[in-house]
């Protein structure tokens, strides 16, 4: 007995075809919107990074001109990548505010500190401000230091730091590595770190009522997501390198700070706030400023 096979050869109806096209159009629109948003976000981020870099280059060029003992300083934005925001830019020499004409100031007195507030903008209408102070180049010796004559009755090691870290009097942190989360407070005394300090998988919050000296380097590994916060109410000396990866790190120095090694920032997530005078490789580079970029202070 013969069998007949029946096949549906109608295909898609017009309604089904229109529905498929509409769905495809919606998907394309949504995808395009997301892609455009991502590209715009990436462009804005890139513009912000470029703005900060160009502004820092501008400030660096001005600083070099200042330390060459020139009485005229110019903010050169002729390349057109950034512009000065004049309403938010000021230069004060001692107690005298200097008039800015065509991006330049004249009659700079090198016997008085030069306070600079510089704000720039870019084509994306993003702004970036830098506040810094420069003083004449001097061979500056740190007035307060921690030396061998000071006694450190308290000693913190990796074995006893877990028992508590609220100490009174001079304290020596005799440890090489931090792998846990610690909060330490030193009151009525100074602090010293005699060894290389590696902050590996942990975090450290340290407050020192007096002065602090780091005799060797401080390093934070890039795979450590934890924050580090250091606050020193006196003066601070950093004899070795400060090597920060992508960690969020904030250092507050209420007194003077001396850096004898290199300050290495791998990412712009670290800020060093200094209220007093800053010395880099025996050269005073300013006071009451924030360090947000790598600086070479090593004499090698």
From TrEMBL:
UniProt keyword Transmembrane present: yes
Membrane-spanning parts: 12-39
Q: Where in the cell is it found?
A: Cell surface
InterPro entries cross-referenced by the UniProt entry: N_methyl_site
Q: Which UniProt keywords apply?
A: Competence, Membrane, Transmembrane, Transmembrane helix
Q: Which domain of life is it from?
A: Bacteria
| Name of the featured protein | Type II secretion system protein J
Name its species: Virgibacillus byunsanensis
Taxonomic lineage is: Bacteria, Bacillati, Bacillota, Bacilli, Bacillales
């Amino acid at each position: 007995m013969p069998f007949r096979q029946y096949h549906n050869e109608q295909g898609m109806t017009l309604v089904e075809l229109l529905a498929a096209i509409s769905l495809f159009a919606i998907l394309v629109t949504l995808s395009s919107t997301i892609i455009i948003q991502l590209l715009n976000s990436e462009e804005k981020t890139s513009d912000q990074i470029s703005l900060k870099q160009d502004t820092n280059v501008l400030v660096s060029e001005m600083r070099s001109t200042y330390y060459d003992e020139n009485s005229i300083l110019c903010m050169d934005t002729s390349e057109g990548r950034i512009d000065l925001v004049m309403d938010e830019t000021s230069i004060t020499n001692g107690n005298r505010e200097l008039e800015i004409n065509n991006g330049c100031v004249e009659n700079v007195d090198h016997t008085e500190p030069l306070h600079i507030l510089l704000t720039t903008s870019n084509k994306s209408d993003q702004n970036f401000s830098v506040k810094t102070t420069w003083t004449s180049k001097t061979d500056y010796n740190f007035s307060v230091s921690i030396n061998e004559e000071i006694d450190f009755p308290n000693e913190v090691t990796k074995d006893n730091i877990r028992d508590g870290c609220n100490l009174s009097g001079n304290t020596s942190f005799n440890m090489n590595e931090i792998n846990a989360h610690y909060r330490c407070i030193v009151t009525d005394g100074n602090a010293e770190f005699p060894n290389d300090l590696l902050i590996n998988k942990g975090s450290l919050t340290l407050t020192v009522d007096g002065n602090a000296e780091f005799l060797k380097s401080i390093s934070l590994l890039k795979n450590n997501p934890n924050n580090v916060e250091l606050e020193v109410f006196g003066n601070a000396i950093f004899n070795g390198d400060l090597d920060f990866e992508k960690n969020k790190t904030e250092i507050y120095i209420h007194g003077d700070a001396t850096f004898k090694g290199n300050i290495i920032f791998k990412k712009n997530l670290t800020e060093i706030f200094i209220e007093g005078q800053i010395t880099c490789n025996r050269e005073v580079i300013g006071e009451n400023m924030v360090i947000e970029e790598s600086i070479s202070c090593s004499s090698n």
